[in-house]
Each structure stands twice: as C-alpha cells, then as structure tokens.
Write a structure and sequence with these properties.
The protein is α/β, with parallel strands linked by helices. The chain is built from 13 helices and 11 strands. Bound molecules: flavin mononucleotide (FMN). The site of flavin mononucleotide has 26 residues, from β9. Pfam families: NMO.
C-alpha cells in the first residue's frame, strides 16, 4: 500500500513514520505510545544521563515489542570564555533586575552532552535497533562501535552536501530536515541559517543525491504532508511538532496553553535560547534580543544564564524565556493520544495517496 517500502523494511515498523526525538519534552511514555501505534519511537538522550537512558529503554522494552531508536547529539563541546559569559549576562542584566534575581548567584550549567564513550557502552549493552544522531556523526571509533553492536545508524542533513557526507560515512538512512522543522537545526557543515532549504526543496534534491532511503522532516503534521513527502521521493517521515500536544508528552501546562494558540507564523529560528539555531514559538526574549544575536554564547552555554529567568517567569505563568521548540506546522497539531495520532496519520496519508493516484 505504501508507494515506497524501503524504510518499513529497514526498520521493521508497521508504518514509515518516525516519532522525532524531542529532548526536554518527552520520555519513554511518548515513545511507547507512538510505537504501539506503529511508528518508530525515538528516545531523546541528549539531556539525560547514561543511567537514565538505560532505565528509559528498559521501560520501553517492558511495555512494547517494537524497534526503538536512541537519539544523541554529537556537537563538539566549546568552552565558555569569561568574555562571552560576561557579554551575555550584560545583555540579560535588565531581565535579571526585573525579576529580582542576583546575577552573581551560582547557576547549574546547561546539560546537553555529546555522544561519548559512556553512552556508547549503553548502546552496546542495550542494542537499540536504531541510533540517530543530530549535528553530524560521532568520531569514527565510536561510530564503528555503534555499527558493530548491530544498530542501524541515521542522522539529520539540512543540505545535499550534508546528506552526501553522511552517506559516505555509512549511514543507513538520511533524515532530510527542512527549515520548517521544530527544534535545533541539525546543520553541521554550515552555519549559514539564511541558506537553509525548506523541506519541499530539500527532500527531492537529497533523494537525487543519495542511494540510502530519505526520511523527510520539517513541517509534516498530517496525511497531506506525508503524501507530499512520498511524492517528493522520501521513503518515510520524521514528525515532531504534531506529537507535542499528545497527553503522553512532557510539555508543561503553560507550554500546552501556548501551543494551543499558535498560528502558521508563530515560530522563528533563533540562537538566543541555547547558542545554536533552533526553531521555536517566538517568546519575549527572541523578540527583544534576537531572534539571532551575536551576543549569545556558543551551544549550549546560552541556556545556562537563562535558567533562573525561565524558572522565575514560569512561576508567574509566563513562557518569556522558555524554549518552546516547534515547527511551522505546529498549529496542525491535535490533542489526541499518540498511538491514535500515529494510526490517523498513516491512514489519512494512504487515503490521500490513493485519491491522488486516481
Ligand atoms: C520540541 C522539539 C525538540 C527536538 N529535539 C530534538 C532532539 O533532541 N534530537 C533530534 O535529533 N531532533 C530534535 N528535534 C528535531 C526533530 O528531530 C525533527 O527534525 C523535527 O521535529 C521535524 O519537524 P517538525 O517539528 O515540524 O515535525 C526536536 C524538535 C522539536 C519540535
């Protein structure tokens, strides 16, 4: 029934749909629900410890007999210099004063760890069927160990050049992440945000350039989007934002309220929340200090000084400093259980493709 079965055959899932990993707003509960609905569930592991990742995969294995994807970041850590920290604190000083916060008080550093030997051991032990990376790939030795453990490897590309780079290093499928996508841009061979192609332009060009299956991501939130992705040459889709309002996600009450009110023009690509370009619902900080600012320190350090502001504002029911990552199709999201949503997405995509085929 699906016009291209390469991803279904590779992942051995019921549908060619990947629930996107979404660090900070989901855990095993959403993975389990999406997998029960027939998707490949992805566990975001960039903001949790190896112990927590182990526990979460254990929960998933207990509850559902389905393949699982563990997702990691693989950025090169950059030290935060005193100058960069001082410049950012200076930029935020007015907000600290407004919230009665002491800028000299010690704060916990932002926690986005790249894939390393400790996580590699977890992968070797748990043997998830799929491992996905964001921001490129880990060093050759670690990548070799992941493959030797029998895991399929996939990673995001935001340009044709990145897709070809990933294929040359042996990935089993490429996620073509268009500019509409929520969350961090997976870009790793470029830092030129204005040049990032949209999903409609990127997917067919990546499909022409690589032999491995292409997973379209960015702005896909219903059956129409899935059918379009297949028409453009994709073998499957990775969907994030459309799952954010599911009861199984960990989006806060304030976040849910904000997501229920968004429109097609509510999101921007910004670097002020973490130091790396990411798309999210525009908030006060993005409006006033960004969306892109040279004062934001490198990833993930921008998030550190925002911690106390985020907490203070959220206490008052505001999301002024909250990174509510979401893509341009977020307004198409619905508040339905993730298993039901997954089945609806597949069913409506198939119906749409059938209708188009006449
Ligand atoms: C809230 C949120 C968090 C995200 N976190 C991650 C992550 O931890 N790892 C990752 O590889 N991608 C992450 N992404 C990007 C997704 O993998 C994917 O590219 C994106 O959700 C697709 O676009 P869509 O949101 O329009 O469906 C995140 C996206 C969102 C919306």
């Amino acid at each position: 029934m699906w016009p291209d079965r390469r991803l279904i055959d590779l992942f051995k899932t019921e549908f060619p749909i990947v629930l996107a990993p979404m660090a900070g707003v989901m855990d095993a509960e959403l993975v389990i629900a999406a997998a029960q609905g027939g998707a490949l569930g992805s566990l975001p592991s960039a903001m949790i410890s190896p112990e927590k990742a182990r526990e979460q995969v254990g929960l998933i294995r207990q509850r559902v007999k389905a393949p699982v994807n563990m997702n990691f970041f693989c950025h090169t850590p950059v030290e935060l210099t005193r100058e960069a920290e001082a410049r950012w604190k200076q930029r935020l000083a007015g907000y600290y004063a407004e919230h009665g916060l002491d800028p000299a008080a010690p704060i916990a550093a932002a926690n986005r760890a790249p894939f390393d030997a400790a996580f590699c051991e977890v992968v070797e032990e748990l043997k998830p069927e799929v491992v996905s990376f964001h921001f490129g790939l880990p060093e050759q030795a670690l990548l070799g160990r992941v493959k030797a453990a029998g895991c399929l490897v996939i990673s995001s590309a935001t340009t044709v050049k990145e897709a070809v780079w990933l294929e040359q290093r042996g990935v089993d499928a490429v996620i073509a992440q268009g500019a509409e996508a929520g969350g961090h841009r997976g870009m790793f061979l470029t830092d030129k945000i204005a040049e990032q192609p949209g999903t409609f332009a990127l997917v067919p060009q990546v499909a022409d350039a690589v032999k491995v299956p292409v997973i379209a991501a960015g702005g896909i939130a219903d059956g129409r989007g899935i059918a379009a992705a297949f028409a453009l040459g994709a073998s499957g889709v990775q969907i994030g934002s459309a799952y954010l309002r599911c009861p199984e996600s960990k989006v806060s009450a304030g976040g849910r309220k904000a997501l229920a009110e968004v429109g097609d023009d509510s999101t921007v690509i910004t670097n002020v929340m973490t130091g790396r370009p990411a798309r999210g619902v525009q908030n006060r900080l993005m409006r006033e200090a960004g969306p892109v600012s040279p004062d934001a320190p490198p990833f993930p350090h921008a998030a550190t000084a925002l911690g106390p502001l985020k907490a203070a504002a959220e206490k008052q029911g505001r999301v002024d400093f909250t990174n509510l990552w979401a893509g341009q199709a977020i307004a198409l999201g619905r508040e339905v259980p993730a298993a039901e949503l997954t089945r609806d997405l597949a069913k409506s995509a198939l119906a749409r493709m059938k209708a188009l085929a006449g």
